[in-house]
Amino acid sequence: MGQNLITVLDVGSTKLSCVIARAEAGGAIRVLGLGHHYNQAVELGRITNEAALEHGVRVVLDKAERMAGLKVEDVWVTTALGNQSADVVSVDVAVGGHAVEAADVENVYDAARAHPLNPDRRLLHMSPACYSLDGRFGVTDPIGEIAEMLGLDMHLVTAERSTIDIIETMVRSAHVDVKMIIATAQAASLGATKPEERETGVAVVEIGGGATGISVFCHNALAHLSYHPIGGVSVTRDISTALRLPVTQAERLKTLYGNVLHCPADHRECIDLSEGGAGKSSFPKSVLTGIIRPRMEELLEAVRADLQQVGFFALGQARRPRLVLTGGGTQLPGVQHLAEQLFPCSVRIGYPMGLVGLADAMAGPAFSALAGAFPFIDQQPEEREVWTSPLPPNLAMRPLSRVSRWFRNHF
């Protein structure tokens, strides 16, 4: 991993988490320190209180450092904030009819890096989808192949520059450097799946607080990445609006009594609101389920349409594609069962993998991004290099075309 000691800080819509870990011989990642704190700096997916963010970062870093018995100098940050989006840029370079060499691959990477971005957006990282040789798509390793043209479809993950700048500033105010900012959806997809799943075909749905990220892997390559602006906070807002309750009380009701599935006894079991809030002092539990389920159905149906469009379900029974649900939003009871009703493939809940010594309190699906940051960091440098200089937006990002067409037709 380049260094034995690695610190990952997760800046979520509702929580801040930190893990200090050490890479051991044999590839094991041993947790040395942990920190967790409620994030009071974000409302409706936007950072509204920079001082609260700085304080929260200091708190989780201090907790993790005390537990580990050491001070950290830099952190890798995972976040889903900043209205993130994933686009695909398709580039081609001339090879000249000889065997593709490493220099040719670097040239096509450079062409992708040079693609203009809107100055209001910031590139977080780049991930190759697939290579092509003379128009033949689906090439995983072009080195040594003879061709006239070498092509590359590259995922560019971007976020609002202002939000990412705020996160970096507040983290540096805690006297640590920021090594890199990683999109939560991509980190969680690595933290909640096994390599063999990413080889045969897997879709990872990371339901966070403010948004949901969808990652599709096949042949151990990222084939698709997209985002939907619906998350756990959306459900909380629905409860708050429908029942005329403060957001904090709505979140508490969701945590204590929330369920996606209706139960015959729900209309008889009442939830007491005598502790405060406007409206009725009690109501049947079925009312709460009736608020939560439509929003979760809307989200999962949007995910299903997204996966249908890129041909994920066409992988077929021979490859046994799987859907993995992870992120804090999957902790609502009944989410997996609802997904099994809506998706024509096997479904499971994804928990963080690969960390030795992770505390039980942080071993739930809400912390998959923390675990996935470590294999992400361990990727080749070419997959982690970013270009951050703003360029004039004189070219629009090309839509997902060649890679989705290959994904639909390759199997």
Q: SSE order in H/E notation?
A: EEEEEHEEHEEEHEHHEEEHHEEHEHEEHH
Which percent range describes the beta-strand content? Answer: 25-35%
- Unreliable stretches covering 5 or more consecutive residues: 382-403
**Which structural class fits the helix and strand makeup?**
alpha/beta
Shape annotation: globular
Give the helix/strand layout.
Elements: E1 5-11, E2 15-23, E3 29-38, E4 42-43, E5 46-47, H1 50-68, E6 74-79, E7 85-94, H2 102-113, E8 121-133, E9 136-139, E10 149-160, H3 161-173, E11 177-183, H4 184-191, H5 195-200, E12 202-207, E13 212-218, E14 221-228, H6 232-243, H7 247-257, E15 270-272, E16 282-284, H8 285-309, E17 322-326, H9 335-342, E18 346-349, E19 355-356, H10 368-377, H11 402-409
Parallel strand pairs: 1-6, 3-19, 6-11, 12-17, 17-18
Antiparallel strand pairs: 1-2, 2-3, 4-5, 7-10, 8-9, 8-10, 12-13, 13-14, 15-16
Helix pairs in contact: 1-3, 4-10, 6-7, 6-8, 8-9
Structural description of this entry:
The protein has 411 residues and is α/β, with parallel strands linked by helices. It is 32% helix and 29% strand. It is built from eleven helices and 19 strands. It has a six-stranded mixed β-sheet with strand order 11-6-1-2-3-19, sandwiched between helices. A hairpin with a 5-residue loop joins strand 2 and strand 3. The radius of gyration is 22 Å and the shape is globular. About 5% of the residues have low confidence.
Summarize the entry for a quick read.
With 411 residues, the protein is an alpha/beta fold.
Keywords summarizing the entry:
alpha/beta, 411 residues, single chain, six-stranded mixed beta sheet, globular
